[in-house]
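DATA SHEET
Item: assembly model
Revision: 1
Owner: S.N.
Input lines:
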Amino acid sequence: MEKSYVAENLAGVRGRIADACARAGRNASEVKLVGVTKTVPAERIREAIEAGLEIIGENYIQEAKSKREALAGLPVAWHFIGHLQSNKVKTALECCDLIQTVDRESLALELDRRAAGLGRKIPVLIQINIGEEETKSGTGEAQAASLLTFCRGLDRLDVRGLMALPPFFDQPERVRPYFRRMRQLLDTLKNEAPGLSELSMGMSGDFEVAIEEGATIVRVGTAIFGRRAA
Ligand SMILES: *Cc1c(COP(=O)(O)O)cnc(C)c1O
């Protein structure tokens, strides 16, 4: 059978991940690929899952919910990677397996409360606004340690690591210093929380640089699914 457009792209991205890992002296199994599917229809996502994609990343709760229903039963995990409003936490817990964007205490508290109601524990990442950009969510680098301590004090949160959406540049090399700072921050926070291991950073334009700087999760949309309708 001929490979689909999505399967073809996915194979290409996997190859580039493997090459970046080889350059960095890392094992390709250390890097998880999240396929970012905002605006991508469920049928396209199904093709990617059939071609071996294991994690989906969604930015909007309503979209995540309807696609998860449409693709129920397929062997794939769902990560939430958008800004999460507290009044969407209940639905988020119904349709997502990991929340990458915990950026404030009030959200952490609400996740803990709702997860307790469901009798489960929710894996999360703490989102860092590493470029200190006003338009972006995430806690400041300086507040990361206190948010981490707060989250680790909540029974129903399982904090796995950090996530960032650094400033955008055409040249990926210009993002490298931000990726490096994220890695340093993770290493510092590990003194307090040795279990922290995940570093979610890098998108279509810069995931190879992110991997060279220590990313364990890359979030790739366009390079797999093509350009999004504006
Ligand atoms: C859209 C998005 C991505 C993927 O972006 P691409 O450039 O299409 O790969 C990754 N992370 C977040 C948080 C996003 O919103």
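QC remark: The chain is about 40% helix and 15% strand.
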